[in-house]
Description:
Oxidized Rhodanese, domain 1, 5 strands, about 35% helix, about 15% strand, globular
Amino acid sequence: MTEIDAKSVQKKLGSATPPIVLDVRNPPEIAADGAIEGSVLIPMDQLPSRLAEIPPEREVVAVCKRGMRSFNVANWLRAQGRNAVSLQGGIDQWKALGLPLKKA
Length: 104
């Protein structure tokens, strides 16, 4: 599986072993749209140098604005041996469903 829908992510976040939500947008995007509560904010261009901040044993859900960058990030993370998927439709889809966001 390479993508996951927003409702499934929300359900997983309430589980005993929630995934890490990795937000790969840039700070201005996060300031404009908000972020999923508890997400780890690492812009896509910084990810290679900050990979150690993501525990290798945890599932990762990559998030961006519309789902393209996060799709590429999830593929890259899987190539690094990580269990990663992309949020289908990105933060735009999350917002469209009325799911909660925190303002940065």
